[in-house]
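Researcher: Structure for this, please.
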Amino acid sequence: MVSVVACVLGFLQPVCSEAQSHDSFREKTKLLWADRREVLFLTILLPRTGWFEPNVTLAASGEIVLASASGDAMLNVTLSNEIDPRRCTWRNRKSPWPRVELTLAKAAPGRWSELLSSSFSGVVETDWKKYQSIDDELDERERISGVRGKPVQGAPQLAKAVDDYFLHQRRQRLEKNESPSLDAIMKEAEREMTRTQGDFNEIVQRLWAAAKMDQTTLREREIAEDAWASEGEAERYGTQRRKKRRRVAPQTEL
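Model: Predicted structure, token format:
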């Protein structure tokens, strides 16, 4: 009986040792991925110890198998979506770190929310060197395909119309010559009187004089800006104001 148990244990020892070796390999393996709309970049970083040049097998279901030269499956993971193995590429790299670099063509375009649908005891991280946001990817695709046209040029006539509108609004405000808001000054005077316990009439007169001075300064500045805008209009828009000639009806000879 003892000999039978010993034989069984002796038979299982290589199997257990091989399973532990595979588990250790998976735990030390790191997956770096960068998602794009039509492809997925996957880098499998392998442990330095016991390095081997793996054979890669890809399935349409998204299963990826890394096997040794003897055929042992050292790594087996399943992606979260299907791929097209015919359009996928991969290569082994030994320096500066042993790794397998894969470019996986997706069966259907679209971004993936996660990399794997199967459990994985190793590390999964984003490959920030190859990462690209959706907006950046669309910009790159448009630039490469030539779909994006030339930048839209500004419309001088539209810009002039906008400037004329605001200039008209400002001139109307200046022509009205409105006084500062008495209601706003009264409220400010009440707050200041409560805070300082000063004379209300004196505070109102001081705030009114300051508001009038500020308004006068603002109007003078606006008038100067309007004069500058009128003088530079021809230079900025390439046009010159022309006086309209009065049309005179032709005289008929008697």
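Researcher: Any notable elements?
Model: Helices lie at 2-27, 134-145, 156-176, 182-196, 200-237. The two ends are 148 Å apart (CA to CA).
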